[in-house]
Amino acid sequence: MNPPLKVTSKPKMFTKKSPALRIDEADLKCKSKSGCDFFGNPEWDGYCSHCYRKERERQHNDQKKSPNRGESGSRASADSPLSLSVAKRFNKFEEKKQQQRQQQEKRNKFSKLASSLRKSTSIRETGRLPEPWLEQSPEVERIKQDYASHLASLSPEVRQLINKYIQGLCRTVCADANNMSIDELSEKVQKFYQILAQCMDAHNVNQELKESVLDYCEKFTMTVLHRNLFCPPTTTDEEKDLAIQKRIRQLNWVNAKHLDCCINETSEEVRDLVYTSLTDLLGMDSEKAPQDKLQAVVKCCRNIFLLLQSSVGGPASADEFLPALIFIVLKANPARLKSNINFVTRFCNASRLMTGEGGYYFTNLCCAVSFIENMTAQSLNLPELEFEQYMSGEVVPTSTWDSALMMYEGISLMYEHIAALDDMHKRADSVLEGTELLQNTMKKFVIEMKLNVEDILARTQITFNSEKVPTDIDTENPLSELLPPPIAPQVVMSGPQKMQSTLAYGKESLNLPGITKYAFPSDSELDALGTDSTPVDGVVTLPMSDSQEFLLTPSSTYGFSSLDELATPDELCAAQASLNFVQGLSAVNYEIDISDTCSDSSAGMSPHPPSVPMPEQKDSNSCLPEETGPASLLDTSESPTSKLLPSPIKPVVPGPGGDSGEGSSPTVMNTTAEDTDEVSQQKPLEPTANVSSITSSSEYQGFTAQGWKIQSIPCDTGPSDLKSTKRTKGNATL
Amino acid sequence: MANRGGAAQRPSPQTQGKICQFKLVLLGESAVGKSSLVLRFVKGQFHEYQESTIGAAFLTQTVCLEDTTVKFEIWDTAGQERYHSLAPMYYRGAQAAIIVYDITNMDSFGRAKVWVKELQRQASPNIVIALAGNKADLANSRAVECDEAQAYADENGLLFMETSAKTAKNVNEIFLAIAKKLPKNEQVSGSGSANQGRRLVESDTSAKTAGNCCK
């Protein structure tokens, strides 16, 4: 008794502090009207513990007296233990069922309200009831339409009679629905059917018509009176519904195996049929007339037979059918199952219910429900303990695990396959990509090869020709040796004369090896073109250009060997001369080397130098009268090589080089053909002065001579030009 | 009799005289051949099933006697022991019952005896009960002597025949015998059955008791 006081004393303290929140002591007292002096507790609905218990007891007793009031409570308890362990297979149906249940709850509440209202009104204005059953719903209209032809074929007398009976029944049922027990009502309705049948028999209505008219009467009255007769508040149907629903939910672990039911769950066809039969069974609730409900059951059962047929391999007997039906009922857990069954048994025409397919299947449904209600461990061939565990949800049956495992197995297999397929897909893609790449590379390769081959062909043509020519030249070399003497006199001669001589010589020399042959490569390459067209001029110009230019020009063309030679000796001539002699002797070798290098070297660059050196050499030779002997030898030896190499660039290089002053070798290379052309064209005029200057400096000539010698060698390597230029520059500075 | 039976199977549309409809329940342990028996009787089939035959649980067949047409509505029942307690729902309101056993299986005969007892106690008092020893074609491995069964049948006032769904032996005959024995003057689909139909609902209790008594 004390603790509540203590508890309530706290708020009091607070109330003093903040009057706004002040609570009267009376509010905190127990709500009990009996004047209980203890404090109440919100947890106990404002009662003290003692009064709360009393109140609870009182409510409980009330509930027992009028079962309807307790519904909300019992329903809540029925809903709560749901579905933690629900097998997921039938989730869909579980949802449907829940929806139905909710609808049902609403409907029930509404109908109860309505019925109670109706009751009050009917009490007030009995007799002159506005006949609520006459406010016809579209459903009733449809029934009327469906049976219009049958009714029309009745004699008007019979029709009137029937209408009278129907109205009478509806009126009495509406009036007395809540005053009569459900059995009395059922009796009344059954009597009504019998009277109708007798009436029609009396009027000699033919059998078929009689049946259909009976159907009509049943459908019509039951649809109209559905509200009053379906699950009326005077019965405990609803509680039974909830009980069976809860029971079925508890039994959700039961599977086909437990029931010895030969449903082949792995077959898709069978599964579809299971679902259709489930929906058929669920559809029973949505029908209003008992006959239609019966038809729903029949439909469901026929589907079950269909699905059994595929599993059994023949017409299924009751041995297979009943377990299957139980299984379906368990899985469907139809809403208001008991109410529906009771409604049908009470108000369906008994002759329909006891005979025929509908009767048989309905009996089976009743059997299934009864079996479910009374299901024990024994009836499932399970040990008692196991059954209890399953029922309490402690243990999930292994079969569920089995099926889950099976499913998992299947799914994992599926994933495996999908992964494998993906992998294969990727591989196929990569293969395709690879093939595409390969194709492209092949194409490229072909093109490149073509180009290369063209290039090489172009070059090699030259080289081959040049090879052949040089050999000719070599053979002629002795002749050229013979030639020097003419050059020597030229040296002695004055500048202009030299010029001419050199020109002539150059031309000759060029012509000899075959300028025409050079022309071919020149066509293929721009630089070559420019240079090629001007080789003769170039020959002329080169010697005239400054010493630097000379150095530059050879530098671009220099090969390793030439550089080495340059690097080692400033002492020059003698040693070189000796070398040259040797080279001259072994000119053939040189030529071969050059040809190889030419073919190896990149396009364009390599061919240019030789042409220049050619004339230069001759010029140098011409410039160096003292050295004529060796020079001539050098010339002879080198001239062929220079010819082999694409000389045209050389002339180009010097031209612009001379114009721009000191240009790095690459820039020289870059100069366009046009410029070179112009330059080359202009050059012929310039040389005279230059030549004279050159001639004046004998030392330079020596250098140049070296360069030329070197040039002849360098021709071999195009790419090495850069290095060579650097070195040559160095040399030049030296 | 066999002759007439064969001819009588086919229902003639214009039936002279009255039509009597009877509900016949098949009882017996599972796998004794209840549905085979019915399929043989109704469809003339054994193992060569037609597409139209969906199920063998509920079938109807008409038999013509001299002046009346007897329409059988044959209700098959699940024979498993676990469903035994549900049987009363099936045989309630039935005018006839065939209790089937397998002559090669002594246990099934024992079960048949239990059924007989139960029917005599719980079914409608004037129900016609027939005892059928099925699988007569397997006489080699016979376990139940014909005489023994005949003696039992006589003792309990049952019709008795050894039948074979496979060879069609005595199949039509047993149904004809039942048809003959059934009272034809009684109105079948009248108020009597209506009451029984209504009682279906309260069957749970009776089913329970039935189950208990069998345990």
Written account of the structure:
The complex is a heterodimer of chains A (734) and B (215). Chain A is mostly helical and 734 residues long. Chain A has 38 helices and no strands. Chain A has helices at residues 2-17, 25-28, 49-65, 71-79, 91-124, 138-146, 148-152, 156-176, 182-202, 207-229, 237-250, 268-283, 290-313, 318-332, 337-347, 350-354, 356-373, 384-392, 398-482, 484-492, 495-511, 515-524, 526-533, 535-544, 547-557, 560-567, 573-585, 587-600, 608-611, 613-623, 628-644, 649-652, 654-660, 665-670, 673-682, 687-696, 698-712, 721-733. In chain A, helix 6 (138-146) packs antiparallel against helix 10 (207-229). Chain A is elongated, with a radius of gyration of 60 Å. Chain B is 38% helix and 20% strand. By secondary structure, chain B is α/β, with parallel strands linked by helices. The N and C termini of chain B lie far apart (41 Å). Chain B has helices at residues 2-8, 34-43, 87-91, 106-122, 146-156, 171-181, 191-199, 203-214, and strands at residues 19-28, 58-64, 69-76, 96-102, 128-134, 159-162. Chain B has a 6-stranded mixed sheet with strand order 2-3-1-4-5-6, with helices on both faces. Chains A and B meet through helix 9, helix 13, helix 14, helix 15 and helix 16 of A and strand 1, helix 2, strand 3, helix 7 and helix 8 of B.
Secondary-structure map:
The complex is a heterodimer of chains A (734) and B (215).
Chain A: H1 2-17, H2 25-28, H3 49-65, H4 71-79, H5 91-124, H6 138-146, H7 148-152, H8 156-176, H9 182-202, H10 207-229, H11 237-250, H12 268-283, H13 290-313, H14 318-332, H15 337-347, H16 350-354, H17 356-373, H18 384-392, H19 398-482, H20 484-492, H21 495-511, H22 515-524, H23 526-533, H24 535-544, H25 547-557, H26 560-567, H27 573-585, H28 587-600, H29 608-611, H30 613-623, H31 628-644, H32 649-652, H33 654-660, H34 665-670, H35 673-682, H36 687-696, H37 698-712, H38 721-733
Helix pairs in contact in A: 4-11, 6-10, 8-9, 8-10, 9-10, 11-15, 12-13, 12-14, 13-14, 13-15, 13-17, 14-17, 19-22, 19-28, 19-31, 20-21, 20-30, 20-31, 21-24, 21-30, 21-36, 22-23, 23-35, 24-30, 24-36, 25-37, 25-38, 26-37, 26-38, 27-28, 27-31, 28-31, 30-31, 30-37, 31-37
Chain B: H1 2-8, E1 19-28, H2 34-43, E2 58-64, E3 69-76, H3 87-91, E4 96-102, H4 106-122, E5 128-134, H5 146-156, E6 159-162, H6 171-181, H7 191-199, H8 203-214
Parallel strand pairs in B: 1-3, 1-4, 4-5, 5-6
Antiparallel strand pairs in B: 2-3
GO molecular function, one term (chain A): DNA binding
Biased composition (Polar residues) (chain A): 69-81, 113-122, 634-644, 667-697
Biased composition (Basic and acidic residues) (chain A): 55-65, 94-108
